[in-house]
Protein: 6-phosphogluconate dehydrogenase, decarboxylating
Organism: Catenuloplanes indicus
Amino acid sequence: MTELARIGVTGLSVMGRNLARNLARHGHVVAVHNRTENRTKELIEEFGHEGAFVPAQTAAEFVAAIARPRKIIVMVTAGDPTDRVIDELTPLLDPGDMIIDGGNANVAETIRREEALREKGLHFVGAGISGGEEGALHGPSIMPGGSAEAYAEIGPILEGIAARVDGRPCCTHVGPDGAGHFVKTVHNGIEYADMQLIAEAYDLLRKATNLVPDDIAEVFAGWNEGRLASYLVEITAEVLGQVDAETGRPFVDVVMDRAEQKGTGRWTVQAALDLGTPVPGIAEAVFARTLSGQTELRAAARELPGPPPGAREASRALVEDIEKALYASKIVVYAQGFHQIATASAEFGWKVDLGAMARIWRGGCIIRARFLDRIWSAYNADPDLPTLLTDEYFREALTDAQKAWRRVVSTATWLGIPVPGLSSALAYYDGLRAQRLPAALIQGQRDYFGAHGYRRVDRAGTYHTAWSGNRGESPS
Ligand code: 6PG
């Protein structure tokens, strides 16, 4: 009789297949299953030699092939397909077994599924997995949620296949129920914002200087040697250096300028709206993608006037300014994302260790970056830091970037180059540090038309002014 599998993977499209291979390469016996059998066959034919796989044709066969307590990783499309797989597996499982959803699920669905399975004596682990297909195969960053009991079982296996930085795995127990998927959602929101900021930096370099994509690729490659070192900056240099084989033109010039999205950035913003946490950098990044896709609207607006094209400069100074603006804005959007996680953690009682999130994002995931070390240290020094912006290191970096950041945003504005990410990051920074915000006027307006009341700076209580009467004030 074949040895029972230590773990099972169902859903063998590229992410699931690579995760199964990663597990097998680490010496685990892995049961594999897919709704359509072909994928299972292909996996065994192509990669069967990499380790011990137990192919299963039906869900019943698959479940029977796994040792108890069973650990089953589900890698299918988010939404209904995930529910269908869970519904099929559940009656076949025994108490204590666990289902690990490794897809990008919406946190509300994860919370619902965890509760439903818990009532049946089963564990449900919503695990964010980042790193694309390469990461899944060679070591992703893994963000598992769910009970501590489930983590005790599945954690060592996941830590074993995750990326490692300085000898430590990029995987840790994030917190109960939806915590893991929530953190992954915010990871993706930050990913959108980081990509948008990089794209704006490229756009400025392209339109405000005489650099061509090949030169800009070198600029990014150079930045990747410094404090901006990150996977996204590294691949930006690669993409900008690419030449289209057919036309000989820069690759970036033959691709349609319409950015697509699968929805995780949007989820981050929706969650932020519900939580009342400002993440304008992430929201701008989502909207910038949406705007880019509005072909008809853009065609209708193309003739609107703007400033005359400015003189292009071969400006080293501008390149340096853009590096600073990019770094400062990047700090701001990461600060927004971490603040959102902190808010959700407090609201849902997850007790997420923010420093540990920065630590497990240092390798394997799409937003892996050198400066995550700084975020990790900042939260180690003060786990209750209200915002990363006030940490000493970041405060100094922002102080140093100030003038350059403002010059870049104003240069872009004068030239008519849209920089929603860079400028909203600066506005957030200025908004937070403002001694007084015009919100007081808004309170006055609200009280004027709706008697909504306001609080005074000099005494407790809520007040209303009789705007249409004698304009006297009374407690409300
Ligand atoms: C990751 C990525 C991944 C995401 C894709 C596509 O962490 O590996 O975030 O989960 O799905 O990058 O995202 P969009 O299609 O929404 O850009």
